[in-house]
Design brief:
The complex is a heterodimer of chains A (about 500) and B (about 220).
Chain A (H helix, E strand, L loop, with lengths): L2 E5 L3 H13 L5 E5 L2 H10 L7 E5 L1 E2 L2 E2 H7 L6 E5 L4 H10 L3 E4 L2 H5 L1 H38 L4 E5 L4 E4 L1 H7 L5 H4 L16 H14 L3 E9 L2 E13 L5 E10 L1 H78 L5 H28 L2 H6 L1 H15 L3 E5 L9 H21 L4 E8 L3 E8 L12 H13 L3 E6 L5 E8 L4
Helix pairs in contact in A: 2-3, 10-11, 10-15, 13-14, 14-15
Chain B lengths: L2 E6 L3 H12 L4 E7 L2 H11 L3 E4 L8 H11 L4 E6 L4 H10 L3 E4 L4 H12 L4 E2 L1 H22 L8 H11 L4 H8 L3 H14 L5 H11 L4
Helix pairs in contact in B: 2-3, 3-4, 7-9, 7-10, 8-9
Classes of the chains: A alpha/beta (about 500), B alpha/beta (about 220).
Amino acid sequence: MPTIVLVEDEEAHRELIQRAFEQMHNDTHLEHFDTIRGAEQYLANAATGSIDVVIVDWNLPDGHGMDLLRRVPINAPFLLMTSFGNESLAVEAMKAGAMDYIVKSPEEFRRMPATVQRISREWTNIQKRKHAEEALRRREEQLRALINNTNDPIWSIDTEYRLLAVNASFQAFIQIATRQTAILGHSVLDYFPETGHNSRSLWKGYYDRVLQTGKQVIAEYQDMIDGRVIDTEMSFNPIISVSGEISGVVVFTRDVSERKRSERELRLREERLNAALLEKSRLLEELERQKQRTLQAVVEGQEHERSRIAKDLHDGVGQMLSVVKIGVSAVQEQIHSIAPDEAAQLHESIVLLDSAVQEVRSVSHQLMPVALKQLGLSAAIQDICSSVTASTAIMIDTELSALEVRMDAVQELTLYRIVQELLNNTLKYGDARRISIQALREESALLVMYEDDGKGFDLHADHEGIGLNNIISRATMLGGTAELHSTPGEGMAATIDIPLLAA
Amino acid sequence: MPTTILIADDHPMFAEGLASLLLSHDEYRVIGYAYDGVETVRKVHELKPDIAIVDVNMPELDGIEAASQIHRDHPSTRVIMLTMNDEASLISQAIEAGAHAYMLKNSAKSDLFAALKAVSAGKQYFSAGVAQILLQKEISRKKNDSLSTTPGEEILTPREIAVAKLLVQDRTNAEIADTLFISVRTVEGHRMNILRKLNLKSVVGLAKYAAQQGWTL
């Protein structure tokens, strides 16, 4: 509900005004006072914005309408009423802050609601503008303070490189102790050295690019100040006039040393981390290689030792026994008169000698099969298979033609031992009727697939481990894999996958 | 005229023992020794003995290879393999190389002279143990041959049949590997073995085979 304060001591005038408002049928509330003091008290206590218009008569019992205007802070528009001929006073009133004045007349009183509405509207507009201006001013002040108080140099130039505005930090930046205003109008290029990493031509290049393209340019440069690395990021922005022309460049610079340092540290840390990870994987690989080498050395050592013992047995004991055997059998044939019990004794000795030779042969063969070295893997495996089939009811189905191409001696011996181990395993668990050994040669790999239909066993049981682990170790040694499967009741299967070097 | 003999053995002790054994037999005369395979071939070329008694396991060139070269270049010299090695593969290989006799070193003197006599007469001779080993090999070969001529599923192993059935169902190697808990490599191996054994080129042929066999998939 609009509230109007009316300060009027003349009863008749007040009534006319009141009637004018009543006739408008609006719900305007009219607060009436006869004196300045009464109105003053009311206005002083009224909340801002609660009063729409203050209508004041010039002549009042305790002073002029102007006095009220002077004493009360203006938070509502004042409308001054004067009598005819007192217009000069009105000018004074306007100066003091009144919104408007009327010369009292019945006509004006009738028009009062419209006048009040107009004044109220104008006052609101003025208030809005005032607020906007105030806000703008404050923003400008803040901006100016910001620009002047920032450590980051800021400056702008026109198309002729003349400085239009600079902030306080600019002087420190160009290391010239001239007053800010004295710099303005001079070419910015004069403040930069002719050569060096911070050269005039470099800067001119940036300015020209912005002036020509109208696009922002971001650049960085590094400097050394007091032994400290300073990284500066500069942004060159076009100043574009209302008509759309490029009228200059404003440059903002920012000290990004801190950020750059963190970035550098981060990068360094990342590099170190990467290096550490790389080192770790290298060490793991080395460890793996070492393991493989150790394994290989152990197996090779073992094979070497076996080979040596086999050779010793064969060359030493075996040959000696053979010579003795031939000698003794020659003696036996030459003796014609011999007691029957002595003949039996001699015969028994010869039989023992025979079995000793046989034993040496068999041990030496177990240790180092000559057929493997001389005829290769296929023949050597066929030999063990023959001896298995000859002495058991097991049938062995072999397809070993892929093994007829000779391989590296270590590869052959290792595969031979693997097959030997697999066969031993089948014999150990028994009940196998058939064994299948198949070799497949691919371009760069050799597959040996082994199957039996025996009892099978639990692969994970501890006591099964050693022989099978040996198989896996040997395959690993050749850089390959051994895949073993067995389930109690379903036999065993193995796939040995060995990489072959391209010939 | 005595039969001339070259003794080739890298064990001097054995060579001498053998020579002393032959010394009392006028019908044989040792005319030289060789201590490795290369020397053996050269001595045969130089001395042209009637018989070369050759060890299998010798340095430089093994006895079987030496026998093969002798048989090729000097067929008039007959080779008796005299060795500690009794592997069936070596024996077969020696026979293929042209050796006339294969003797084990613990043969009785009589056995050795029987061999010399037979070979001198242009016959072959194998000591008792050797004959037995060859026989065993022949038996196991026959046994295994019968294995692969058995009609029906028997030709494939149980695992191969399991893989074959899945292959016929158009499963990929990876799927089969997952189903049977084996690696893809093993599946590939089985697949190649199956096709090879059945003499097929592709899984299409396998499907036909499965139908013929009346497999329940």
